[in-house]
Amino acid sequence: MAKAQVTASSDQGAHRRGSVHGAALLVVAALIALPWVEPDKFALHVISLIAIASIAAMGLQVLLGYSGQLSIGQAAFYGIGAYTSAFLTAKLGVPFPLALIGAGVAAAIASLLMVPITRLTGAYLAVATLGFSIIVYLFIKNEEWLTGGSYGFIGIPRAELFGYVLRDPRSSYYLNVGVAASVYFVFARIEGSRFARAINAIRQDADAARASGIRVTLLKSECFVIAAFVAGLAGSLYAHEVRYLAPNDFTFWKSIEILIMVVIGGVGSLAGAILGAAVVVGLPEYLRAIGDYRMLVFGAILIATMLFGEGGLAALVAALGRRLCAVAMRLIPKLPASRKAAQ
Amino acid sequence: MGALSLSQFIDLVVGGLAIGCVYSLIALGFAMIMRATNIIHFAQGEVMMLGCMCGLTSLWLLPALPLPVVIAVGMASSGLIAVAMELAVYRTLRRRRVPIMNIITATVGMSILCINAARIIWGSEPLRFPELFATSAYEFGGVRISPQLFWIMVMGVAIMGALQLFLKHTPTGLAMQAVAQDQEAAQLMGANLTRMMAYTFAISGMMAGAAGIMLGSLFFAFFEMGFITGVKGFVAATLGGLGSIAGAMLGGILFGLIETFSTVFLSSAYKDGIGMILLIAILLVLPSGLVGLWQKRR
Amino acid sequence: MSTAAPGECLLEARGVTRRFGGLVAVDAVDLAVRRGSVHGLIGPNGAGKTTLLNLIAGVHRVGSGLLRFAAQDITRDSTAKRARAGIRRTFQNLKLFGEMTALENAAIGLHAQTHGGFFDAVFSTPRHRREERSIADRSMAALNFVGLAGLAQARADSLAYGHRRLLEIARAIVARPALLLLDEPAAGLNVTEEAHVSDLIARIRDEGTTVVLVEHHMDVVMRVSDEITVLNYGRRLAHGTPAQIQEHPAVIEAYLGRAAETDRAQA
User: Regarding beta strands B143-145 and A164-165, do their DSSP bridges make them parallel or antiparallel, or are they unpaired?
Assistant: First the structure.
């Protein structure tokens, strides 16, 4: 019998995908409704920040979770995107939508510098990306004429879509969450595709991938460009959300934060990247008490996650979800799902 | 710019050699751990920083402590801390045979943990060491050298010399080398793997601690001092040839000189960038470092 | 001395040498693999068989000498380039993608024959859908061919050892390569599995793929090879049909000589 799909083509797979899509739709509906249910400005602002961070985290997920490349230099692209967008809108009067794309493109072009580095693997690649990130940081800090240097880049205009200025937290919430959701769905689309299989293969065994004719360095570079592009988008959104940029926002600490989001959320899980962003960005905003101890706790969680299971939050949530589904199916015998399983 | 005067040149050489000794000590730590476990110990810079902090703290408690004792305290603390890291975390990860990526991530986590613990304990302000050295310059045949730099070089060479003696002429040192070369064979010969690994981390930690005191006394101590310097120590180790003890020592000195001389041609704001560019260049062009180049020629 | 054999020469190695430090692993070896044949490569342990295979596959750089495939000089080509040109292989130590299903593993073998990329996947272009269907069908056919159809959805690292060996072969043949390099495909297999693999190799040849087979199991090699080249200490010792090789005095000496050495050492 000819299968229509290589990946997850069994009934079980289709069933699982169906429930994930269902959950995703519920989440989208909830996100759309949220500002009307809970219009607290601060909460909406925090969720905006979480959305922005999750975009960068999802980009790193493609790099680390899918293609197995540990990059601790994503802050470089985040920063390039932020300053590019700020410069384009504030100094050149470019309309925001173009600046947003421009930020992504600038970061993507910068990532082409990484192409030679993608030949490296493991910790060597990691340190090389760190080195790159440090160079970009130094550039941002020293080139005052372009970036404002340590004095910062001020006067970044608000985001403006088709003449409508996003003045309140609710509108920028929709912008940021909207872009994050789009990035999520784009990345979710590639699952199970030839592209995803190839980079997955590279992650597991690059030599075997080569022996099957896969252009390993090319694909690894593609992943870098993709991750850089979305990091650039995130940077642009960040610039117009907080409207002030300082070099200190784009040090290697930022790169490490993004890594923490991915690891805590679960390496390999796109939804995990969002969960990780929620924890890393959201938690400190609400638990002021842990303020100083934030990074200490995250460092410890990172170690613990490596020691005790890398599924992260995503695995925990998934396990919880499965338990709930099993319980629900037993309680309600007339559900089509349980009928189908019984066939 | 223009030509350098002789005394300026000598200043640069001395400065380069001194900081080079510091880098060599850190690079040695990287090399030893790399040889034994095949991982890049991301938190090596933090081990250095903690050694420095502990040394400084001992000076606060007992201001009359002579320099060698301070160094000893720093080395002992960092050695213990490194061993603690190994026994608490790294050994478990290796036993479980987790993928390399996870071990690297764990060392990154360790680094974050240490930096923030240090910030909480010692605050975020840079801390000055009290005067440990004479202030008037030494004179050697018309050449004037700062005592601080002089003693850093002397101590650096002494420590590295002691390490070489230890590794080549003591049973423990030889056992450690054996373990680094072939774990299984070494175990069959009776080496206790856990203990040898612990010693490896202890010694590389001690090297880092000494480097930390030197660096701290030269500039100042603060919670983030280990990060960039740690990366630079890694650059030095890679330049020499990662996994080679001799290479680490050579790479450190060389990198110290390169970095110091580069400030003549480049604004000091970009000084850290030199190391990063060098790192990327080495990884791409000469991944087995200078030692690898030497071996290929033979 | 290569015998003048009918059939075009698909793979040719001329004076191929490879050193590792002081050791000469492969020493000026000549090899001529006829199109449509199964060419066995045997020799005592350490003879250089796997090294030679790795040189053909592009894993190691040739020190000196020449490699020609389908009349093209491939001496300097990368592994991936040779794979795309039609040389596929299996590995002695099994290099499967453990976390992927058997079907997905096989599908990787078709990556180079297809083109859909990131944007095709995102927008689900007609090319993407067409290719995915074709990949699924052809991968399934490959699994069928080796006898793993029922395990298509099983995770590769959950498969039994014998099935994993078959899966590597499936991944290597799914693209119908012109040349297949098998590195000890029967290692660790029991008698039944061995017979299945021999049969499989013959069927692969019948489908038009030329095979170079490195193997220690003599029954497999003798049964399925059309020609055999024998290596010893990195040098070519002999070449001929299975019958000729079995009678060849130097070959017997090489194997028995080794056995005698071991006996003496143990005495």
Answer: unpaired
Give, for A33, the enclosing helix (H) or strand (E).
Answer: helix A11-37
Rounded Cα distance, A270 and A55, in Å:
10
State percent of chain B over pLDDT 70: 97
Nearest to B247 by CA among B285, B206, B289, B197: B289
Domains of chain C in sequence order: 8-86+178-267 (3.40.50.300), 97-176 (no CATH)
Residue-wise over C197-213: b if at least 16 C-beta within 10 A, else e? bbebbbebbeeebbbbb
Q: To the nearest whole percent, how much of chain A has pLDDT over 90?
A: 50
> What CATH number does the domain containing A190 carry?
1.10.3470
From chain A, the residues in CB contact with B234 under 8 A are 127
User: Cβ distance A209 to A197 under 8 Å?
Assistant: no
Given CA atoms B54, B59, B61, B62 in this order, what sign does their dihedral have?
A: positive
Q: Is C79 exposed, middle or buried (0-12, 13-18, 19+ CB in 10 A)?
A: buried
Q: Assess contact for B138 and B151: CB atoms under 8 A.
A: no
- Longest CA–CA span in chain C (Å) reads 72
Please give the Cα distance from A88 to A100 (Å, whole number): 9
Distance from CA of A288 to the nearest CA of C (A): 40
List CB contacts (< 8 A) between A190 and chain C.
Answer: 118, 121-122
Give me the CATH number covering residue B178: 1.10.3470
Task: Give domain status of residue A17, yes or no.
Answer: no
Of C85, C16, C23, C80, nearest to C53 by C-alpha is: C16
- For the cut 70, the answer to whether the pLDDT of residue B166 exceeds it is yes
Going by pLDDT thresholds of 50, 70 and 90, the confidence category of residue A234 is: very high
Q: How many domains would you assign to chain B?
A: 1
Q: Is 90 exceeded by the pLDDT of residue C7? A: no
Q: Which residues contact A117 (CB under 8 A, 6 or more apart)?
A: A125, A128, A129, A132, B280, B283, B284
Length of chain A, in residues: 343
Min Cα separation B290/chain A (Å): 17
Q: A23 in a domain, yes or no?
A: no
Q: Which residue from C121, C122, C136 is facing A3, i.e. has the nearest CB?
A: C136
> 3-class SS at B77?
helix
**Does residue A341 sit within a domain?**
no
Crossing angle of helices B225-240 and B6-37, in 10° steps, is: 80
Residues in chain B: 298
Structure tokens at B149: 């730099």
Cα A303 to Cα A73, A318, B200, C29: the distances in Å are 20, 21, 21, 52
Cβ B263 vs Cβ B269: under 8 Å: no
Structural domain of A208: 38-310
pTM of the model: 0.88
Tally of domains within chain A: 1
Question: How far apart are alpha carbons A173 and B146 in whole angstroms?
Answer: 59
User: Is position B1 within any domain?
Assistant: no
**Interface contact A201, partner C, CB < 8 A:** yes
d(CA B62, CA B59) in angstroms, rounded, equals 5
